Amino acid sequence: MIRISLDVMGGDFGxxxxxxxxxxxxERHPDITFLLYGQSDKCEPFLERFPKLRANATVHHCEVAxxxxxxxxxxxxxxxxxxxxxxxxxAVKDGTADVAVSAGNTGALMAMAMFCLRTMQGIERPxxxxxxxxxxxxxVVLDIGATIGADAKQLLxxxxxxxxxxxxxxxxxxxxxxxxNVGAEEVKGNEEVKEAxxxxxxxxxxxxxxxxxxxxxxxxKGTVDVVVTEGFTxxxxxKAAEGTxxxxxxxxxxxxxxTLMAKIGYLFARGAFRMLREKLDPRKSxxxxxxxxxxxxxxxxxxxxxxxxxAAIDVAYDMVKNGLTKKIENDLxxxxxxxxSPVGPETA
Amino acid sequence: MIRISLDVMGGDFGxxxxxxxxxxxxERHPDITFLLYGQSDKCEPFLERFPKLRANATVHHCEVAxxxxxxxxxxxxxxxxxxxxxxxxxAVKDGTADVAVSAGNTGALMAMAMFCLRTMQGIERPxxxxxxxxxxxxxVVLDIGATIGADAKQLLxxxxxxxxxxxxxxxxxxxxxxxxNVGAEEVKGNEEVKEAxxxxxxxxxxxxxxxxxxxxxxxxKGTVDVVVTEGFTxxxxxKAAEGTxxxxxxxxxxxxxxTLMAKIGYLFARGAFRMLREKLDPRKSxxxxxxxxxxxxxxxxxxxxxxxxxAAIDVAYDMVKNGLTKKIENDLxxxxxxxxSPVGPETA
Lengths: 348, 348
Description:
Chain A is an alpha/beta fold and 348 residues long.
């Protein structure tokens, strides 16, 4: 049984998307139990339509809903203890849920998650990991916006956590990890990235294979399983790529509706276009994973639909099922054990 | 008459691409005179095929060609004064050329350009500006890799130079300028970007309209005419977007050749696909402009073909024709005049 708490009020559409999304995810994973946090009168009309979900969910009424534009500090002040967002996270803390999912605003969600769950021992700063569709399949990319200007040690932490997540997600033993940089040569880049490269080579971590530097175009190629960068660059690279994909899709749509011949061609190739649309469906890669906290929180896009929200729940499900937190804890233990032994030469 | 010096040996293919590229550009702009720097025996066989170019070009023999993998320091040591790259730049310095174009390696080209031309008075660090295809047309994006970790003052310089370039390129009076950030709110981002935002608001520059912060997906939307960022993030965002475009084009190609129906559809929609291909042709946006030096140098992609190289020459031509250097100098003068007057309150 996987217990997933949902911030039902989060996102641009709240229960209208969250509840049908949960119902979809339940179809795929009948061993989920949901804890629904939200304004119960707003949840009920939607829950009525999904009897199976209702049988596998408990509704916990929360008066306060955090707005999509609320500042993190204000959200904490107003929502601590009482908001649907806080209580969904708190359920992970007190052990009644295995993972929390919210489509609420990222800043508020991260602030509450940090305040409530705290960072793991040995981890200085949290990261948000995204799943990036590539030519080879999928890669884990982190940080996509939690820690602006992460330093070398924090980048090493991200590599370790990203490696654990890739193992949980892709079922591989030793995922390849690359540091995002402006060139592949060792002399390239800023000091933090160069130093992180040195640390990663020396650390020789158990659960991953350090590949070296990768460049922006390696993201789409899928050169490595895990791409590590600090939150400023990661966030901008992600949005630049998403924007490019949207722009190209628009160009394609325009081109295919411009002439009669193109429209006829479109009719013939309908199946191919459907396949393409499915392959590029941004909803499929929905679900940012908060890493480095004592508990897992998944951020869904705020503007997604039920299908996209269900994908974020799928990610939550996979992370619990494959023991993400345990994997990170073990990797941290191994790393620190490796570090501590050479410190005491007298004991040898 | 626009005089353009070419580093004929630069790029993956050297004269094989550079000379046909120059011939193409000359067709479009008959008022160009070329100064060709390279190994004359390697240039001749290609020049023979383009009598019109030969009549409008002088060949300057240079024994040394800089390799695509040479380190900047090594390139400077080996190539200073004698290489085709150096001499093409030096022609701008001594006034025999108006602008230099090279497809050689970026690091070496920037090192030589800085060493030879020096930075403009009032500019601390150079930038490389790229032309980014958008949903609305084109935007100027800088820096895409010259100055890793630019500070707030340097970002302000980039805004000023980017504004001047947009005026030279797009024929608009006061281009909009945005700072690339992880959110639009003033509290978002790293210290340098926030400080640069304050500086830009206060500076109230003549030749541009400061828009505020923009995000990664605003690049493709074309929200502003000029997007300013430091070189690390700019380089990665550019390559991430290029990689996404390439990946989507590959998916589309695969989808359209998978079934007989798709292939028939492709035949009907051939014209639409041709239009799409032209619209997305990466060769069209070839040509990075080195800004902030006493002279203009254009960097072409190393792996481009003659069409792409000709596009880089087009950019060079436009920059000279529209007086880019003069525009930047004037903007700098106005900016510093604006700064100096309030310093002496006693004189009022």
